[in-house]
Amino acid sequence: MSKQSKITPDPVEPSVPLLGSERPAAPQVQATHGPVDPSRRIEVTVILRRQAPLPETAAEPISREELEARHGASAEDLLLATDTFTRLGADVLDADAASRRLRLAGTVDRLSRIFGTNLEEVTSSGPHGHDIRHRQRTGGLQIPANLDGIVTAVLGLDDRPQARAQFHAIPLATAGISYTPPELAAIYKFPHGMDGNGQSVAIIELGGGFGQADLDAYFGGLGLAGPKVTAVGVDGASNQPGQDPSGADGEVLLDIEVVGALVPKADILVYFAPNTDAGFLDAIINASHAAPPPTSISISWGQSEDAWTAQARNAFDQALADASALGVTVTAAAGDNGSADGATDGKDHADFPASSPHALACGGTRLDADPATGTIRAETVWNDGPRSATGGGYSDTFPGPDWQSGLAFHARHHKPGAKPPTGGQGRGVPDVSGVADPQTGYKVRVDGKDMVIGGTSAVAPLWAALIALLAQATGRRFGQIQPLLYSRTSGFHDVTTGTNGTYQAATGWDPCTGLGSPDGTALLAAIKSGR
Question: pTM for this one?
Answer without folding.
Answer: 0.95
